[in-house]
Specification:
5 strands, alpha+beta, 169 residues, extended
Length: 169
């Protein structure tokens, strides 16, 4: 028994796909330059690119540090500091535009907890911590991370709005 199979071939058998690959207009360094130019136009109204200065001392940071009070009690202190300063025991921190907004989000999420001062809570936590978190530190890190992320989300939405207005005009 012999089988005969016919295959439909499309294109030239001599053609090579390696030669005809499209070269992207945007390479990594070009994209960053174009992005800075467009960002400058959105924020300032000028097409001159924004100079990026890596000065972490000009940035405010929101974070939390942990202090052991005794064998069973831990105190979490939420702080808002300028620059790349990290108080001892910092478990998470991130750059923010306004330190009050993340703190309000943290206060809302941890409203049932034992607040001993305006910026401090103590364990044991009253909130049931799911098995997703290994301990209180991870739970607090998650809360602070969400608070930091909310600000970046709002900033992105604002830039997206500016971009859409620019494209529409």
């Amino acid at each position: 028994v012999t089988l005969t199979t016919k295959v439909l071939a499309i294109g030239d058998s001599e053609e090579s796909s390696a030669e005809d690959k499209r070269k992207s207009k945007y390479k990594q360094h070009n994209f960053q330059d174009d992005f800075r130019t467009h960002l400058a136009y959105l924020l300032v109204g000028s097409r001159s690119p924004i100079d990026v200065v890596e000065d972490w001392n000009a940035v405010w940071r929101f974070g939390v540090s942990v202090h052991n009070k005794d064998k069973h009690v831990r105190r979490y202190h939420f702080h808002y500091v300028k620059g790349n300063n990290h108080p001892p025991g910092t478990i998470i921190s991130g750059p923010v535009i306004s330190g009050q907004e993340p703190m309000e989000n943290v206060r809302k999420e941890l409203s049932e907890e034992n607040w001993v001062s305006e910026n401090d809570i103590e364990t044991p936590l009253k909130t049931y911590i799911s098995k997703k978190y290994y301990n209180c530190d991870q739970y607090i890190q998650h809360i602070v991370s969400n608070a930091l992320g909310s600000q970046s989300s709002r900033l992105f939405k604002y830039l997206l709005h500016l971009h859409r207005e620019c494209v529409r005009d």
